[in-house]
Amino acid sequence: KQEVTQIPAALSVPEGENLVLNCSFTDSAIYNLQWFRQDPGKGLTSLLLIQSSQREQTSGRLNASLDKSSGRSTLYIAASQPGDSATYLCAVSVGGFKTIFGAGTRLFVKA
Amino acid sequence: DGGITQSPKYLFRKEGQNVTLSCEQNLNHDAMYWYRQDPGQGLRLIYYSQIVNDFQKGDIAEGYSVSREKKESFPLTVTSAQKNPTAFYLCASSISGAAGNTIYFGEGSWLTVV
Question: Is the pLDDT of residue B71 over 90?
């Protein structure tokens, strides 16, 4: 059974710091991995999607990597800003309409 | 603008009552989903639909029902059989149900039992 784990559950950093969020999954048989952002009381916004054949994706200050063999993905945020404060969730698509979500990492960037 | 609209944002349910959460999308997506989010947990799939007039149970379908009479609409009914309905409910869609497609979410609905 596929399980997705995100560590740490919460993270607080000063503004301007580069940071890495971690996501691990137990079964390497995935179609893709997606990173989402969720603001308090809001829906999820897709940030990056990495297909299983890809190693990384970049969008602005965000870079996501995927290592299927080790069951890991990282989301790198460069030069963090207070506006980056949110919960970041990763999710893996395992086929058949099944997408398994992690519980998220709650990020707080201090001004 | 294209997107997914959920209503109401906040809903209160009395014991023994059925309530319905609305979800409408204008993205022309075939697949639609309902997820439940509880504090500190990942999203859990309630129901999904890949085409009009067809839907399938997800991991936690007990106490919930859905319909898909139109491509744009996928309402969720929380029945009195759902014993612990207080949660944040998220509707989502994707261009198709094939694995590998980006999932888009609505803004969510809060349901509280009073």
Answer: yes
